[in-house]
Design goal:
It holds the Pfam family BTB. This is BTB domain-containing protein. The protein is an alpha+beta fold and about 350 residues long. It has 3 domains: about 150 residues, Apoptosis, Tumor Necrosis Factor Receptor Associated Protein 2, Chain A (Sandwich); about 100 residues, Potassium Channel Kv1.1, Chain A, CATH 3.30.710; about 60 residues, no CATH class. Helix content is about 30%, strand content about 25%. It contains 10 helices and 13 strands. It has a 5-stranded antiparallel beta sheet, with no helix packed on it. Strands 3, 4, 5, 6 and 9 form a 5-stranded antiparallel beta sheet that branches. Strand 7 and strand 8 form a beta hairpin. The chain is flat and about 80 Å long.
């Protein structure tokens, strides 16, 4: 049985400069007493000006059988810190923790938040991860060239071994108690949860609202959507894992189809997931194809990265000969032309005797 949710006790404090040398002074004091073991995840941003969009992620850390990660999201304003707890062996779990989150920067007061008895769970959504969002005004780091985010985690709830393993993947082609709606696509029935889709997509949030007749329908027909790619999209939405490289759901072959549907149905987090996949060094998609997707779906970081990685005239010629080049905007073509000129200027010149 899963415990009923309890609101966490939250206190926000700002430490003055005299305390800056001890970002987690309260946490360290607690360590001296008998109590939960503390685990630390740290993420250092060495150059604020060059933080990639949508953000930076610390390596995952396993604590009490749960997978934890720390993520600095720069796409939102104010900047947001995500601390995520995940467990992929069961769709019904929870845990509790005392959390001490701080942001430190050179010559700046320490910014800190404390969450006591914070509950992470997926009992209400079926989602395999649960996150805590901490917002801080960008002014807190104004003029800072670097900063460090640190999360000290004291697990006080049950560990992952408490919950049963569920070997069955969450399928979308067969009904179960979690699903409450059917989407019909090209004669394929896809079973979904309305609340889950509404949380991640403004399109489905509006579709399932009382403003439309579909709100009370058990089956809704969706046009112009490939059912196979939509199921892959749903797997990404429910798994919430952006570090997927060459998996069954997200790879070079499926990325374009998933990206099209994520953009069409306004799954902005999934658009970001696919962009991060395309930015990953292990992604083998051709540069011209990446640039075409970046242009079509307004992936500005990917577009800048593609142009920045052009190192030779042969690579530029390859893009110009690609099918996607004719679809690029005049602005993007001018950027490629400027990169061509820069490569020519930087190339070693023959010595004339």
């Amino acid at each position: 049985n899963v415990e009923p949710s309890m609101p966490p006790k939250k206190r926000k404090i700002k430490l003055d400069d005299s305390m800056a040398s001890s970002a987690f002074c309260l946490a360290k004091r607690a360590e001296q007493e008998e109590g939960p073991v503390s685990h630390v995840i740290q993420l250092h941003i060495s150059d604020v000006a060059s933080i990639p969009d949508p953000g930076v992620m610390a390596p995952r850390k396993e604590i009490n059988g749960f997978s934890w990660r720390l993520f600095v999201c720069t796409r939102t304003h104010p900047t947001r810190i995500h601390l995520e707890c995940g467990f992929n062996q069961s769709r019904l779990w929870f845990t509790r923790a005392n959390l001490y989150l701080t942001i430190t920067a050179p010559n700046k007061p320490v910014y800190s938040e404390i969450y006591e008895n914070y509950r992470f769970s997926n009992s209400s959504t079926g989602f395999r991860s649960s996150s805590l969002d901490m917002e801080f005004q960008n002014g807190e780091l104004r003029d800072a060239s670097s900063f460090t985010v640190e999360a000290r985690i004291e697990c006080i709830g049950p560990d992952a071994s408490t919950f049963r393993q569920d070997p069955r993947p969450l399928g979308f082609l067969n009904p179960n108690d979690y699903f409450d709606c059917v989407l019909s696509m090209s004669e394929t029935k896809i079973y979904v949860n309305k609340k889950k889709l509404s949380r991640h997509s403004p399109y489905f949030e509006a579709l399932f609202s009382q403003r439309y007749k579909e709100a009370n329908q058990k089956e809704i027909t969706i046009e112009d959507a490939d059912p196979q790619h939509f199921v892959k999209l749903l797997h990404l939405v429910h798994r919430g894992d952006v570090s997927l490289i060459n998996t069954q759901d997200l790879n070079e072959e499926s990325a374009e189809g998933i990206l099209r549907l994520a953009d069409l149905f306004q799954f902005s987090d999934t658009v970001t997931d696919v962009e991060m996949f395309l930015l990953h060094e292990d992604c083998q998609m051709k540069m011209g194809k990446k640039l075409g997707l970046a242009e079509r779906y307004r992936l500005l970081t990917l577009k800048d990265e593609c142009i920045d990685k052009l190192r030779t005239s042969e690579e530029i010629q390859s893009i110009r000969k690609s099918e996607e080049y004719s679809q690029l905007s005049q602005e993007t073509r001018e950027l490629i032309f400027e990169k061509t000129l820069k490569l020519w200027e930087d190339a070693p010149k023959p010595i004339v005797l």
